[in-house]
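Troubleshooting log. The previous run stalled partway through. Resubmitting the same two chains, unchanged.
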Amino acid sequence: MPDEKKVCLRGSALTKVFAYSGQKTVAVDHVDFNFYEGEVVSIVGESGSGKTTLAKMLLGLTSVSEGEIYFQGEKRDIRSQKKRKEYWKNIQAIFQDPFSSYNIFRKIDAVLLDCIDLRGGRNLSPAKKVELMKEACSFVNLKFEELTNKYPFELSGGQMQRLMIARIFLLRPKILLADEPTSMIDACSRATILDELMHLRNEIGMTIIFITHDIGLAYYVSDTVYIMEHGKFVESGSADEVILRPQATYTQRLINDVPKIHEEWDLSTV
Amino acid sequence: MDMPELIAKVDDKAKPAAMLEVKELTTKYITRYKEDVYAVDHVSLKVEEGKSLGIAGESGCGKSTLALSLMGYYFAPLHYTSGEIIIDGRNISGMNPDDVRKSILGTEIAYIPQAAMNALNPTRKIINFIEDVMEAHDLSVTKKDVYERARQFFARLGLPAEVLQKYPVELSGGMKQRTVIAVSVMLLPKVLIADEPSSALDVTSQKMVIKMLRSLMENDIISSLIFITHELPLLYNVVDDIMVMYAGQIVETGPAKEVVLDPLHPYAKGLMGSIIVPEQGLRDAKLTAIPGVPPNLKKPPAGCRFAERCKYVRPECKTNSVASREASDGRAYRCIFSEKELREFYRKEAD
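Second attempt completed without errors. Output:
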């Protein structure tokens, strides 16, 4: 974490209510948070805890029912399409399913060229563009020569997810929101992806927000952990504090239910 | 019967019986371009009565194909090539698929495929589903008997009897999965093969499923369990022995504790080094990542299949095929290096 902590993204009493013919479901219930610059934050919760709804609000993909989001100290304003595009230059996302994250009709070159254009590189020479793409691919240990002229579906899940990280490398956003980025790929590729994300964080100093149900993963990558239950944060703090000395019963149960290697896994408690 | 023969018989009794024994089983997929893909290549394994075996490996290594192959029930594009499958002394390899379905599946060996719970018919109640299962096995029981039997069976497994009268949509994911498992073992099979039975569930439901699988063993409903998952911490907590699979071959087998905490094969070592659990010390540990991708099984490499990705590769690894070799504590692994040499590599690396 940087010495001088500057708040990058702040939420105050953020709420999302889904209403359907008189029935109201409060998916996210008055949550407050401060995500600092260059920090890795994890939001951990089980299915239905509201973590993905929160992520969608942060990304501006769904409206906020109540409360405010502050981006770099100012109230976030994404009411017009132009402003929304401006905001998306600062916040990018990696989703769970790499297979549905790409437009299947567009080649990998086009995917990467879009990123260069978005960063204002539209008028660069083709040679320079190729150089940038090569750099981005080699950052995630992919070979651009092997990818060029291919479609995303010709890659494996792990490679697709790494191509996503290459995109982020080109875009250099302030915030990266990763919604279960490794839940669909196996353990060996998972280590590679996590290491590359951490490397990228150090390289461009961005904030990473992990949305995950995997408490072990949250412990491994994060500086700060937020535990979410029924739309509320039940516990938050440094990763060591929350995972090794959990206070809330929900956190204790969550940790207790995960199979472990060096500690006894207590099956009697369900 | 003279004396030596009698002694041999008694000895046989004393040894735990192999519930499922597989010898050099090879099965292949034939693609529509008539290419052969050897997804299970000369796999041998043995599960004793009362024991459980785990199969680990990354996606695409052949875990699920092995599970399918173990049933002896083959349908295109999967084809049987060679090898033997012996369930409780009965050789089922090469049997007619229809016979396997009638007399083996469900009664001798039961299989729970990945995401089995999603296959429940949404328009039929659980009890109707059970009636179908019973009917398929030619059991001339009345509906009343089926209900009574199902009720008793569910009670024995600690599942509420109300579940029987419900539609699948009315049940939670965890409950659906436990229901599917319960129904799959209602005919008391000897061996249960569970392929990722808990991977789509949250941690609490996962724990309940695991607890149920354990109770099936403890209550002698099944004699042996084969558990397939890529989640190593889970496997470690459930099974007695672990087999690590890579590109259709078994690269290491042994007791769960030894394989997870002290792996020998370089691939197993890499796999164990990527385990993430919320325990003290995890944050300081460096996760190992294995570079590269598994080989294409349409043209499997001539030598060791892991050679392309192995840190300790020697030129001969890529040309000579590698046989499985015995190691200490009842383990076996497939590598040209001796146990001592491998341990030396790992010790150097750790320094």
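Takeaways: The two ends of chain B are 62 Å apart (CA to CA). Chain B has a mean pLDDT of 88.
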